[in-house]
Design a protein that fits this description.
alpha/beta; Rossmann fold; 5 strands; TROVE domain-containing protein
Length: 251
Amino acid sequence: MIRRSRQLLCQILVAYLNASDEVPQKIKASLHQAAEIACGNVPDLPGPVVIGLDTSGSMGCPATGNRGRGGTTKMRCVDVAALFAAAILRRNPGIVVIPFDTRSYQAKIDPSDSILSLSARLSKYGGDGTDCSLPVIEANRRYTKRAFAGIVLVSDNQSWINSGRAFGYGQGGSPGVMTEWEKFKKAQQKNGIADPKLVCIDIVPYGNTRSPDRLGTLNVGGFSDAAFNMVNSYLSNDQIRFVREMESSEL
C-alpha cells in the first residue's frame, strides 16, 4: 500500500515522534519498516550532492511554528532537515552530509541504522548559532576533487552568526555562502560539472534568504514531501517537470 500510494516520509516521522511510551514496541517497529519502504519512493538524484544540514539551536523550533497548546507539532525543524538528509543519503550513497552550527561536523553514518534512526542520529549534532557558509567551506576544503551536481542547504532560515558571516555575501571581509559557492562552482567545472546547482531550503521562511535568486540558485520556502521531487527536477535541469512539481504543491 505504501508503494502504490507513493507515500513519503514526513507523515511517518510525525506518527513516530507522537508515539508515546505506552505504544507497543511492535507498532514502533512497524513505523520503522514503513519508513524503509517509503524511502524507496524518494527519487535518485542525477548525481551526488553535498547536503548542509543546519543543526543550530534555532532548529529546535516546531516545523509548523508555535500554534498554541494542542496545535504545535512535535516535529522540529531539525527533525525535518535530518529526515530529508537521511532519505537522500539512503537513496544516493555518494551524498556527503555536513551538519553545522557555528562549526561543521563530520557525520558518522552507521549502515545498520534504519532511516528513522539515522535521521535521529543526524539531528543530534550542534545546538549553537548558525553559519550557513560552513558546509560550503568544508566542501571546498575536503572534496574539491570529487564531482557533485550541487549543494543543498537545509535550514530554518536563521542565517545569521555573531562572527560576521551573514545572508550570503558575508560582512567585514568574512566569506559568506555566495563567496564560497563561487569557489565550489569553479572547482566542479574543473571536475566536468558544467552547471552545478545551489538549493536553499528554508523550513520556516521569513523575509530573508541565504542567497539571492540568481541563475543556478533555487530558494525553497517551507517543506513537504514534494521537496524531494522538486530538488531532483531542479538538479536534473528538467524544467517542465520542475514547473509541474511547483504547480502541484498546495499552498
